[in-house]
Design brief:
With 325 residues, the chain is of the alpha/beta class. It folds into 2 domains: 137 residues, NAD(P)-binding Rossmann-like Domain (Rossmann fold, 3-Layer(aba) Sandwich); 152 residues, Dihydrodipicolinate Reductase, domain 2 (2-Layer Sandwich). It is built from 9 helices and 15 strands. The strands form 2 sheets. Strands 7, 8, 9, 10, 11, 12, 13, 14 and 15 form a 9-stranded mixed beta sheet that branches. A 6-stranded parallel beta sheet has the order 3-2-1-4-5-6, sandwiched between helices. Helix 4 packs parallel to helix 5. It starts with a strand and ends with a helix.
Length: 325
């Protein structure tokens, strides 16, 4: 049997504890051997809580460890470029939280580093690896609902802590970068194309961060994404795929769990099927990464192939929303 992939984590973000570590154990083929934080005390507390082998003070010390093969980067957006590039330069495979970077120039620089080093880099949009998306692609491809013309997608949750990093301009926060990026990625994934226009309006906090946004992206063939995102209402990720012969409703396109469903409307009739498998939503992506690193699969959804389109779309929408203020 192949030896487990040895993972290191940069930082002690909540998503590492709630999603990455449980999925790593569920996926099999990998184990968390180290976590780094700016202070040893923080790293030790996180390691103890998460069952990680050891704690490391300082991100550089973790990246210099030759025993670590892959690195998860759940740091604030404004730190993604620095530490993703450093991990690639250190010869690690990298799973970087979305967005890959908070702006286009940083994203281009990181992708250039990935090209130059030949390093494997994934942006942590995990839903393209889900069974649900394979089923949706099947429904769109077999003529059940006709041609996909419009996607309507929301991603909201209530953020009440004013000190949360998502509300920091310096750390490149904001609702579009944090959750609105998901509908953008969904549209690019399902349309299999890049946007050719768009615009948005937003609600801003005193630090110049968008706390709510609505907008549109147009795609070749007069297709479109209509989206909304924000931090000011209850959790919601509902998506509708509107087609020439029907429509598909997804209660949670991005992180399906429990009672999540796919509802298909065609010929004036509807049917509903379960969307989720009983596993953490990060699990299929990590299983794939482990297969790639052990030579059992060709890499899919690499950042060098797919990340720049999202960065450019986010840039367009933010510029539009700022101009509309």
């Amino acid at each position: 049997m192949a030896e487990d992939v040895r993972w290191g984590t940069l930082g002690s973000a909540h998503i590492a504890e709630s999603s990455f570590l449980p999925a790593l154990r569920e996926a099999g083929g990998g184990r968390p051997v180290a976590v780094a934080s700016r202070t040893r005390a923080a790293a030790e507390a996180f390691a103890a809580a998460g069952g990680i082998d050891r704690a490391v003070e300082g991100y550089e010390a973790l990246l210099s460890d030759p025993g670590i093969e892959a690195v998860y980067v759940p740091l604030p957006n404004g730190l993604h470029r620095t530490w993703t590039e450093a991990a690639l330069e250190a010869g690690k495979a990298v799973l970087c939280e979305k967005p890959l970077c908070g702006n286009v120039s940083d994203a281009e620089a990181v992708l250039e580093t990935a090209h130059r080093t030949g390093g494997l880099l994934w942006e942590a949009f995990v839903f393209p690896f889900h069974h649900q998306m394979a089923r949706v692609r099947e429904l769109l491809g077999d003529g059940t609902v006709g041609e996909l013309r419009e996607i309507q997608s929301t991603f909201h949750f209530l953020l009440e802590n004013p000190a949360n990093i998502r509300l920091s301009s310096a750390l490149e926060g904001g609702s579009l970068r944090d959750v609105g990026c998901y509908p953008v990625r969904l549209a690019r994934f399902l349309f299999q194309a890049e946007h050719d226009g768009g615009g948005a309006t937003a609600v801003w906090n005193e630090d110049g961060v968008d706390v709510e946004m609505t907008g549109e992206l147009s795609f070749p063939g007069e297709r479109r994404l209509l989206f909304s995102c924000g931090f000011r209402r209850e959790y919601d990720t509902f998506s509708r795929l509107l087609c020439t012969g029907g429509h598909i409703h997804l209660t949670n396109a991005f992180h399906p769990r429990g009672a999540a469903t796919i509802e298909v409307w065609a010929d004036d009739e509807s049917r509903t099927e379960p969307a989720a498998v009983e596993e953490n939503t990060f699990t299929p992506a990590l299983r794939h990464i482990h297969d790639v690193l052990r030579g059992g699969a060709e890499p899919q959804h690499l950042a060098v192939d797919e990340a720049l389109g999202n960065a450019r779309a986010i840039d367009l929408l933010l510029r539009s929303a700022r101009a509309a203020r």
